[in-house]
Amino acid sequence: MKNEFDSHLLLSVFEKIRQHGERQDDRYVLDGVTAYTDHDGYTVFMEDALVKLRVGFHNQYHFDYDKAEHLETFEKKLKAIEHNY
After folding, report:
1. Does an H or E element contain 78, and which?
2. pLDDT per position as a tens digit, 50-84
3. Closest by alpha carbon to 72, among 61, 63, 83?
4. Taking burial as the number of CB atoms within 10 A of a residue's CB, which of 32, 33, 40, 72 is the most buried?
5. 3-state SS assignment for residue 28
6. pTM value?
């Protein structure tokens, strides 16, 4: 499945989760999506119960998921956050 996200959109969603989400230790949670960084802040992660997204150096990103429908649902959550906040 080809996704429609560019790295700028993903980083924008990450910032919206940090700004509007509930802080839980070193993570932020908004609308079912958890966002956090690695120890140096160069890699960001966003995940729900079924999908994990890693955005790393040079804005390369990678989704980990088992089923295409899980990714589709996760992408809908990210788009909703981008448009609603």
Report:
1. helix 68-84
2. 999 999 988 789 999 999 999 999 999 999 999 99
3. 63
4. 33
5. strand
6. 0.90
Contact in structure between 9 and 17 (CB atoms under 8 Å): no
Structure tokens that stand for 3 in this block: 């996704």
Average pLDDT on 33-41 reads 94
**CB neighbours of 44 closer than 8 A, spacing ≥ 6?**
11, 14, 35, 36, 37, 38, 54, 55
Tokens encoding 80: 């909703």
> What CA–CA distance (Å, rounded) separates 19 from 46?
14
**Do residues 44 and 57 touch, judged by C-beta distance below 8 A?**
no
74 vs 30: CA distance, rounded Å = 13
Please report, for residues 1, 22, 50, 53, 78, the alpha-carbon distance to residue 71 in angstroms, rounded to integers and kept in the order given. 9, 23, 8, 10, 10
Neighbouring-strand partners of residue 55? 44, 61
**CA proximity to 5, closest of 48, 41, 14:** 14
| Residue 19 pLDDT > 70 | yes
